[in-house]
Amino acid sequence: MHDHRVLKENLDGLRAQLGARGADVPWEDLRKLIQERRSLTTQVEDLRHQLKKGSEEVGRLKRDKQPTEAATAQMKALGDRIRDVEESLRVIEERVTDLALRIPNVPHESVPVGKDPSENREIRRWGSATKFPFAPQPHWDVGEALGILDFERAAKIAGARFAVLTGLGARLERALINYMLDLHTTRHGYREVVPPFLVNRAAMTGTGQLPKFEEDLFRIPDHDLFLIPTAEVPLTNLHREEILTEETLPLRYSAYTPCFRREAGSYGKDTRGLIRLHQFNKVELVALTRPEESYGELERLTAAAEAVLQGLGLPYRVVTLCTGDMGFSAAKTYDLEVWLPSQGGYREISSCGNFEAFQARRANIRYRRQGGKNSKTDFVHTLNGSGLAVGRTLVAILENFQQADGSVLIPEALRPYMGGVDRIRKA
C-alpha cells in the first residue's frame, strides 16, 4: 500500500512511476474520490466550527436569561448535518482505501522494464543442462510407471489439479521438506515456525492478496477465513500491528506449509503433472529488516534458496523479473528456474522478492530506532521467497535423475532422510 500523502499530493507522479504496471488502476476515479474527500473534510471542519460557535451562543443566551429555542434548533440541525456529511466521508474513505489497496508496488530502479516473461533478465546459471543417452520422460510418466504418483485416484477424491503420492514418492516429498527446513534453520539462520494454515481477511490484506486477488483464494464463508496460498501470509503477519525494536532486526522465519490456490487464471496451463496444483507443499523464507539492509537481505535470501538446488545437484538459472512479470506487491524479484529435461527448458521453482515497505504499511509493522520510547518509528521492509516449492523440486528430481531402466536416483543429500535408499525402482 502507498502512503496516503503520496495519493493526495503526487498521484500523477505515482502513476508515471508505475507506467504499464498500473494500467488497470482507475486513476481518474481515484482522483475524483480524493477530491471529494478533501471537500467533505473541509465541510465537516466548517460545520464543527459553526457548531462550536453556536454552542457558545446558546451558553451566552442562557447566561443572559434570553430564549434559546431557535439557537438550540439550529444546533440540532447542524449536528444532523455533520452526521450526514461524516457518513458520506466514511463511505468515500472506504472507497479510497479499497482503490488504494489495488495499486501495485513501485518497481525498484534496477528492475528491467518489460511487458512479459520474454523480457526478464538472466543473471547467472549453475550446473549444466542434464544430458541423457535416451529420450527423457516427463515426470508424470516416470512417477506413474514407478507407482509413486497417482492422478486418477486424486481426481476421484478431489477433482482435477490434485495428486496422490505413495510409497517412496511420499517419503521423497517428506525428505525434501525436512532437508530444506534443516538447511535453512541450521545453516542459514532462519527460525522455524508452524503457523496456522487458515488466516483472516486482515492477514490476507496485509500481504497483498486482498482485495484484488480474492478469486484466486479458497475461502470458508461462514468464518471469513482463507486457506493460505503461501506461508508468506502467516509468517509476515506474525508482527502485524506491532512496533519492533531495532536491535531485534533482521527477523528471519522459515515454515513448511501446504499451500492452496484456485489457479483461477491458469486454465489450460500445465494441466498434467505436479507443476500447477490446487494444493502443494512449500518451504517458505520470510525476513523483516531495516530499510537500508533490505537489498542485501534479498541477495542473502536468494542464496539460501539456491543452496537447496546446489545441494541436490539440480541445474538452474536466476533471472530478474521485468516490470510486466513481477508480482503485485514486489519491488524486485528474482526467480530461480530449474532445468526440466522433458521440456528442454527452465521452469520457475522459487520467487524471492523484496517488498520494501509495501506490505509493512498495509499490515502496520513498524520498528523503533535505537534511542528509547520517544525515538522515531518507521516501517520495516519485508522479503520472502520459496525455499523451495517442494512439488516442483520433486518434479526436477524425477526428471533429472531418471535412468534408462526407469528408476530414479536419489540425490546424496536426501539419502539420510530416505533411510539410506539411493534409488526408486518399480515395485
Question: Can you put this structure into words, describing what you see?
Answer:
The protein has 427 residues and is of the alpha+beta class. The protein has two domains: 97 residues, Serine-tRNA synthetase, tRNA binding domain (Helix Hairpins), CATH 1.10.287; 308 residues, BirA Bifunctional Protein, domain 2, CATH 3.30.930.10. Helices cover 39% and strands 20% of the residues. The chain has an eight-stranded mixed beta sheet with strand order 1-11-12-13-16-10-9-4. The mean pLDDT is 95.
Short account of what is shown:
With 427 residues, the chain is of the alpha+beta class. Helices cover 39% and strands 20% of the residues.
Distance between the termini: 53 Å
Radius of gyration: 27 Å
The outline comes out as elongated
Structural class: alpha+beta
**Major beta sheet summary:** 8 strands, mixed
Overall pLDDT level: 95
Low-confidence stretches: none
Share in β-strands: 15-25%
Helix content: 25-40%
CATH domain class of the largest domain: Alpha Beta
Strand order of the largest sheet: 1-11-12-13-16-10-9-4
Look at the structure and name the CATH superfamily of the largest domain: Bira Bifunctional Protein, Domain 2
- Please tally the helical runs, counting DSSP H or I stretches of 4 or more residues: 12
Question: What is the CATH topology classification name of the largest domain?
Answer: BirA Bifunctional Protein, domain 2
Domains counted in the coordinates: how many? 2
CATH architecture of the largest domain: 2-Layer Sandwich
